[in-house]
Design goal:
Elements: H1 2-13, H2 22-26, E1 32-37, E2 43-51, E3 54-59, E4 63-68, E5 71-76, E6 84-87, H3 97-101, E7 104-112, E8 117-136, E9 139-152, E10 157-166, E11 172-177, E12 186-192
Amino acid sequence: MGLLIGAARNVFTGAGPTHVTLKQAAAVPYASLGVRVDDGPEVLIVLVTDAPHSRLWTAGKTIAVQTNDGRIVRTSGLPRNLSGLSGDVGADVSPIDALRRKEGTRTLLYDFADLNAYSVKTVCRTTPQGHENIQILGKAIPTERIAEDCRADALGWSFTNTFWVGEKSGLVWQSVQHIHPRLGPVTTEILRPPETP
């Protein structure tokens, strides 16, 4: 666990390897996620809670990332954090819905405690972009790519999220997400998948 905490500190210092290596990922016998903030080094965090549609990934007490079907819905320990994310009127926030519905618009509500901004209305349009093979730790994974163009007028914030969803598993293998208007993109990739997607 000490190695995980040391690696987590690299998010702030910028020291350390650019990518988690196959050897490093293999040394951790738990489901794991690689996380990179902007152009910083990739940090390995492990799965500690696996509930239907919701997962909590941590590096000790240093970093925590909660996901809902691959979408980041809450963080702690990053330079800027997402306090919470929900769908308007309790709607689902899963990016995988875009594959089922083909395209569509949804409203997401973002909370940023450090900005004293809550329920920030963000309108997102999702568009499936077809098949794409991605590489994670040298392994080719067939995915469907989803782009999500979002706009939060109250904060003058617009961004595009991208998700790569496993064609068979429905698992979000890789993503580039914008979780805070004052933080660069957060890239995630599943290094060791959970036993059940």
